Structures are given as C-alpha cells and as structure tokens.
Amino acid sequence: MRAKRDWLPGLLLVSPSIILIGVFVYGLIGWNFQLATSDKHTNIADGEFVGLDNFIAIWSEARWPGAVWNALVFTVVFVLTALLLGWLLALLLDKGVRGEAGFRTVFLFPMAVSFIATGIVWRWLMNPAPPDRAVGLNALFQDIGLGFLANEWWLTDRWGMAAMALPAIWQLSGYVMALFLAGFRGVSEDLREAARVDGCSERQVYWHVVLPQLRPVTLVAVIIIGHMSLKVFDLIVAVAGRQLAADVPAIYMWDQVYEVRDPAMGATAASYLLLAVAVVIVPYLVWTLRSERKAS
Amino acid sequence: MTAAVARTAVRPRARAGAAGRWLKFGVLLVFALIVLIPMYVLLVTSFKPLAEATAARAWQLPTVWTVEGWVFAWQELAPSLANSLRMVIPASIISSVLGSLNGYVMAKWRFPHSDVVFTLFLFGMFIPYQAVMIPLVQMMQAADLMGTITPLVIAHVVFGIPICTLIFRNYYATLPDQLIEASRVDGAGMLRTYWSIILPNSAPAFAVTLIWQFTSAWNDFLFAVFLTGPSDWPVTVALNNLTGSMVMPYNQQMAAALLASLPTLLVYVFLGRFFMRGLMAGALKG
C-alpha cells in the first residue's frame, strides 16, 4: 500500500462527488425503500413500517399486472428488433459502402431527438382511426393500396405495446448499429486473414471468426437497450398520454404520486423498477470491474 | 501458374462483388428512407397552412408553404426554450468540471479501492430515476427550492457526474503516465499537475461531456416533470402539455416538435463526432 500522503489528496478531490452520489443515489434509494415499506398511503400519513406488504399488495391493484405485462411485451419486441436491425445495418456497412458516413449519420440522428418530440410524430403516424379518417400510416396504407394493413396500433388489445415499440426501435437501432460496427472493427484483420489463408470463405470467416467475438458487444447492447426499455416513460406519455392501454410501471408510479397521491405505492412501483434494472446492471458492472482489474 | 489461376478466379468474383455492393447500397438506401419518414412528416406538415393539415392531404406536400405553424410554436414555446437554456448551461458546465476532476483522480491519482468507488458511481447512471424521485421531490420541498429551476439543475449535475467521470477517466487513461511523473519530479502536487498539465490537454473530453450533457438535459422529461412548475417548465414539458390536447392542429404540433428539437439536432449535425463518442462511452468499454 502506498503512503497515505500519496493518495489522500486524490480522495479529497473526489469527495464532493462521493458525497453527492452517496446522498442523491444511495441515500435517496434507501429513503425510497423506506417509503415503500411503510403504510404512508396519503401525503399526510406518518407511515409505520409494514415490511413487504406493499410489494405483495401491488399485484392485486387493478392496473399493476397490466402495466408489467405491457412493459414486458414492449421490452421483448424493442430489444429483439433493435438488436436484429442494428446488427443487419452494421453488417451492411462494415466493409465500406459508397456513402457510408452519410448512412451512419442518417441512422443515428434519431438519437439526438427527445422522446417527447419523437412521440408527437409517431402519435400522428400511428393514428388508430380507420383509413378514411386517419392520418399517418393508416392513410398511407390506403393511398398505396395496402389498406388491409391499417390497424389500431398501440390501442390493439393486449399486444398493442408491440406497436409502441416502433418509435423506440426507430430511435435506437442506429445506436445498436454503432455498437456492432465498433465490435466488427475490433476483430483484428490478421485473424480474418489467417482464416482466409486456411481456405475459409468470407461467409465462414464471418460465422466462425467474427461472430464469436461479437458476444461481448451483443451483451452490452442487450443490457443498454434492455434497461432503457424497462424504464420507458417519456415516449409513452407523448404517444398515448395516460391511457390505460399503454400503462407501464413508470406511468403507474407517476399516477400514484400525482393522481392517486399514494407515496407508499408509488415508491413500491419505483422499487420494483429499480430491482428489474439492477438484476441486469449489477452483474454487468461487476463483470466490467473484474475485467478491468484483470487487465491492469 | 498461381498467377494465372488467380486471374481467372478473380474476374467473376469481382463482378459478383460489384453486384453485391449495389445490392447492399440499395438495401441501405431503403432503410435510410424509412428512417427519414418521420422527418419528412415533421418538416412537410410544419410548413402547411391550417387548411391543409388534414387527414385527406396527410402525405402530400403543401400547395402553399407557410411559416404560420412555426410562428405559433415560437410564441408558445419561447419562454420554455429560455428555461431550458437557463438550465442546461450550468448543468453541463458543472457536471463536466466535476467529471474532469474525478476522472483525473481515477485515472492518474488513484486511492485505495478507487475502482470500486468508480463502479458505485456508474451504478448511478443506469438506475431508473423513478427510484429516487419521490424522496428527491420531498428533499427539494424541505429545502424550499421548489418553484425555481434550481432543483432541475441540481438533478442534472448530480446524475451527470457518472457519465462525465467515465468519459474523462477513459480519456485521461490514454495520456502517458510520464507526463504526470515529470511534473511530480518537478515538485508539482496534484492540483498543480492538473492545472498545468492535464487541464490544457482536456479540450476533446470537455467537448464530449458538454455536448452529451447538453443533449441529455435538453431532452430530459422525467426530472423536469417532477421537479418544475409551470413558470420553470423546460421545453420538453411545455411541448408535451401544448400538444397533449388532441385539438391542436397538426401543422402547429409538428412545428413545435421541430422547434424544440432544433438545438440538439443542430448540435448533432455540426458536432456529431463528439456526440458519438459520448454515446459509445455509455457502453462503458464499447
């Protein structure tokens, strides 16, 4: 261990941030958990400790199970499609195409726009009215003779959240593409060349050399997209407002705070959200920490 | 002989290659056009007069191009655009400065278990902010800060620390250790070294964090909706409330959405390089 006067100044310099993160991240998470384990069901109640009662009771609330279902449908469709599209775009762009930089710019620009602005356009595009009165895609389908494709989009019973995933896919496939492109380019040309010398075709090189090395990038993409998906909020507010058809845990929590005014239930919903994200993120962070230690 | 074989083998392959390249280009072009559809809708609809922003003419170009939608959007959103600006400038500068100091220590002046502290910081950038929101609002009420823009600035500063620290740490790790050693040998302490060696070399990383923080604070809705009231609404909240009423004509809605997105879109167009690096940093080692 190095001498204290070597490292103490560093610790002191970081300490304001340690305090801020300690209070605002870990302190508030603790406070939120305390609320979730209390019976503070109105803003003026004192809130006695009730253990995990709320965590059980929430499953018999009218809206919660539906909200969880919606988030799951949204997540599965969003993650799988964004992953597939991002990988496909990266594959097409990998070996240099005319206008590569231009394509990259186009595929990534949706990332620069807020979900609220995105939501406004997609609310127009996914207008659920029948084709004769509709704007957006339903009207377009009618115009080009594909009227049978017109549908109710996110208002579709039970599976509507699959449509809600469209704007999210539109916004984030480019990001997945960028991750995969970085991954492709991380596979050394020497390795590919060695396989070619051994008589592999380009396709074999791809399946047996490149693809196995993409596992870490794929994992990272799933984690990043997946955790964003579980938290989805702005997009749904902008597309659907607070309609029940598009309820998700984040909207449920918002309503508990401002409509129902039940802090304990709001905090319980928030705790479940944190738990869902932590299950994905904590192993990822531990894995990153370990691999950095090994590297140094 | 090998040369002859190679020559005959290469030709048909090259032709297949050319066809393949055009096929790839075609597929990419189709995807690019699909990605641009919402942009077409935004632009075209925003320049339509009220009478043409209807279902019947949904996909047509306007017969008369007009800025009336934009004028309306500007009148409605000007105060909240000012609020957003008032909020993002301090939020991006303060979190970048803190990130720079933290990154410097964590890359070049480590203390025992600094990598664990760093990992604990990173957790803060992935959490769903809902998990801190209710107590955060109570805390800001207790501090009597609600009704100002300060709570929102504080939130963006604090929750921007992890990504800024990450970007600076990874950037400083690429600076040679000899720079620090040389400065130490000259008798300079930690802060002197930072000031005279590290900070002058930090411009690229500052560009990344400033742009990243600017974009994410500008586009944020969640913190804003919990932490601000009508007089301090940033543009995302004002935009959502404005367009949330379904009676608003589409030309005004689209103009408002574009107007609110213009600053981040301009940043992307002109400084996209730096925006990209911030994006990739979000994947930790990506």
Automatic annotation (TrEMBL), chain A:
It is a multi-pass membrane protein. It comes from the Bacteria. Residues 68-286 form the ABC transmembrane type-1 domain. One of its GO terms (biological process) is transmembrane transport. InterPro entries: ABC_transporter_permease, MetI-like, MetI-like_sf. One of its GO terms (cellular component) is plasma membrane. Belongs to the binding-protein-dependent transport system permease family. CDD domains: TM_PBP2. This is Carbohydrate ABC transporter membrane protein 1 (CUT1 family). PANTHER family: ABC TRANSPORTER PERMEASE PROTEIN.
Automatic annotation (TrEMBL), chain B:
Belongs to the binding-protein-dependent transport system permease family. It comes from Allonocardiopsis opalescens. It is found in: Cell membrane; Membrane. The keyword Membrane applies. Residues 81-271 form the ABC transmembrane type-1 domain. It is a multi-pass membrane protein. This is Carbohydrate ABC transporter membrane protein 2 (CUT1 family). One of its GO terms (cellular component) is plasma membrane. PROSITE patterns: ABC_TM1. The chain crosses the membrane at residues 21-43, 87-105, 117-137, 149-172, 193-215, 254-276.
